[in-house]
Amino acid sequence: MVVFLPQPGTGSRPQLGAALLIALGKSPTARPVQRPSHRSWELAECWLAAEPVTDLVVLRADQLPAACWGDLAVLASATTTRLWLVETGAATTEGRAAVAAARGGRAPLVRPWRAGLAALAPAAVTDRDDDRDGFPTVPDVEFPQFRATARRLLSAAGFARVDAVYRGTFAQARTHAEGLRLSLLSNTSRADLADAVLQQLTIDATSTDEVLTRVRAAQAGLLAEGLFLDLRPPSRRTRAATTVRLEPRLDPSTVARLRGLCDPTTAAAVVLTRATGLPASQLCRLRPGDLTAHRGGLHVRLSSMLSYRVSARAAGLVRAVLARPSFLPPSNTSAPSNTDDVAGTARLLTRPDGSPLDDRALARLRHTGATHAGVVLPAASFRHTTVTDLHQLSRSGS
Predict the structure, then answer these.
(1) Among the residues of the chain, which ranges form H helices?
(2) Which terminus has fewer CB within 10 Å in the chain: N or C?
(3) Quick one: pLDDT band at residue 187, thresholds 50, 70, 90?
(4) What is the dihedral angle through the alpha carbons of 216, 279, 272, 349, rounded to the nearest 10 degrees?
(5) For residues 138 and 151, what is the distance between their CA atoms, to the nearest angstrom?
(6) Do 295 and 312 form a contact (C-beta atoms < 8 A)?
């Protein structure tokens, strides 16, 4: 649910769009990546369509011109958002007529404020963040001892929460085993595929302790299928074990900071970098068709065997790129949509004029966006991991 209060004198689409962007948590005055000006209405529509905004509440709506009422009604209809216009009873008949016209002749429903609050209460409850409770502190031991040590050290309630995450990740890891085993026989890099599998299994984590829990469960699950996943193999240069960064990639506080980015391309570039750790040279080649919806989040497919995942809490920051007009059929024509053609040939991350970003421009853009959002790039990576098929070793007698 989004609540916003238009400033006195708001009377045009750009002004109304700028107020909406601020209500959505954007910082439209930040430079150089965000200068919406005349694009504010277009950007507001993109973000409302991309983010899971169920209700848009406009306070003091009677101070807005009738044309703004109609614009808001059209916007809410296009983004499947419920529109609530809160007014003191001094609203003009022109405003209500504009809303009715935008809704196909259906007059707006007028409710007393108490009834309106009662209708909004369920939406306020579902918007609550369930990740505020801290994940229990878990022991930093290797995966064969992890579950037993956690059971011994944690309280019953704490272990129950840890074990639920552990068992779920353990089961998911076993489903990835066959793909990892096939990669050992293909041209796909073992390290790249192991990194992608661990990314998919840990991307939902909200703390370092939860990342560690998921990593240990992944190692145990793969071992149950005959695969040994070593996160810290000795370096060929130093002979010392490599270090592994276990911080969460898209925890709620990081996503909240990223929501301040107003430009969809900038936000998507930073989120995809945080989520996948991929270099700009690979991200700039992504196409809209490489993104598919998955359980509220997104799958980012690089090849038939290699894919990454964006968690549901951050997926809207990437979906806004797909909601840009360049990826949508023109609204002023009845010609059939060419969205499939565009998705198959266009680049995902482009300039406002639609021209593709090269790797250098994308690298500058995402680092500038990360600086404005106050996040660090790149995020955690498991690129030094190794996978060994124990079944092959037993057959070869090693």
Answers:
(1) 13-23, 40-50, 66-78, 93-102, 113-126, 143-153, 156-183, 190-202, 208-224, 252-258, 264-276, 280-283, 312-322, 339-345, 359-373, 390-396
(2) C
(3) low
(4) -160
(5) 10
(6) yes
User: How far apart are the C-alpha atoms of 261 and 25, rounded to whole Å?
Assistant: 8
- Largest interatomic CA distance in the chain: 87
Higher pLDDT, 258 or 54: 258
Torsion of CA 221, 222, 226, 232, to 10 degrees: -120
Structure tokens at 376: 């660090």
Eight-state DSSP code of residue 47: H
The residues pairing with 83 across neighbouring beta strands, listed in sequence order, are: 56
Q: At what angle do helices 208-224 and 156-183 cross, to 10 degrees?
A: 50
pTM: 0.83
Name which residue leads in pLDDT, 180 or 311: 311
Query: What's the burial of 340, exposed, middle or buried (CB within 10 Å: 0-12/13-18/19+)?
Result: exposed
Q: 100: which residues sit within 8 A by CB, 6+ positions away?
A: 106, 107, 108
Distance between CA atoms of residues 88 and 108, nearest Å: 15
**What proportion of the chain, given as a percentage, has pLDDT over 70?**
75
Confidence of residue 167 (pLDDT cuts 50, 70, 90): very high
Q: How far is CA 210 from CA 28, 108, 201, 203, 257, in A?
A: 34, 47, 11, 10, 21
Whose structure tokens read 């829990």? 213
